[in-house]
Structure to design on (232 residues):
């Protein structure tokens, strides 16, 4: 027996159309997985808003993490004096960002015991201990980690954050460990100061991945409607 013995030509056409729609959705998902999703991995923040909570996902080419939407933001150059040393406003901002983006894996106290890190290998860094830091514990070392991430681990780049926010996180991370984090390299510090003072930055528009997928799927369905079945 063959399939046309069970289905009429019209039913076969409807089945083929439905299959094409399914394949179209799969193609969209694959497109997001390999091209769009890596660029939407990270959460964006409005400079005055810190109440939106995001859940940090595991690292990888496909990250289902839903980060909050953010509007495009143009940030002018920063006075290094306002970010190179801790101050109350910077620490408040840094703690809020840490709670939103880091505590899930690193734990609220930075001990590497967050629920999101239970299945990770290697385990999230324990910021209260002086050992095991891949890039080092100095201010410039932690900033580099936030900027580049750590290859071979779940620690991804946080360069979606503004430079000010990354430096706020640096100070918070250092504050979690009572040990000596080491003296900074004057050349490295001068480089960071120049980075802050010489160039502004543009934070692009971002939307949660789930919303982007929903919108694309809806637009595809509207552009490729399924044939309306008829009753015999």
């Amino acid at each position: 027996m063959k399939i046309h013995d069970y289905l009429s030509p019209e039913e076969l056409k409807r089945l083929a159309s439905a299959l094409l729609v399914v394949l179209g959705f799969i193609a969209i998902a694959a497109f997001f997985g390999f091209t769009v999703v890596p660029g939407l991995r990270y959460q964006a923040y409005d400079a005055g808003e810190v109440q939106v909570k995001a859940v940090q996902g595991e690292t990888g080419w496909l990250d289902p993490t839903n980060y909050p939407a953010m509007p495009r933001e143009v940030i002018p150059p920063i006075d290094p004096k306002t970010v190179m040393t801790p101050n109350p406003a910077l620490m408040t901002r840094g703690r809020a960002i840490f709670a939103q983006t880091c505590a899930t894996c690193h734990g609220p106290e930075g001990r590497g015991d967050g629920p999101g890190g239970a299945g990770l290998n290697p385990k999230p860094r324990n910021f209260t201990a002086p050992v095991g830091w891949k890039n080092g514990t100095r201010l410039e070392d932690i900033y580099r980690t936030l900027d580049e991430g750590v290859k071979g681990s779940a620690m991804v780049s946080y360069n979606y954050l503004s430079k000010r926010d990354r430096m706020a996180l640096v100070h918070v991370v250092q504050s979690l460990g009572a040990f000596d984090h080491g003296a900074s390299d004057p050349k490295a510090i001068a480089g960071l100061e120049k980075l802050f003072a010489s160039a502004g930055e543009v934070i692009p528009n971002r939307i949660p991945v789930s919303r982007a997928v929903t919108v694309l799927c809806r637009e595809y369905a509207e552009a490729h409607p399924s044939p309306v079945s008829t009753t015999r």
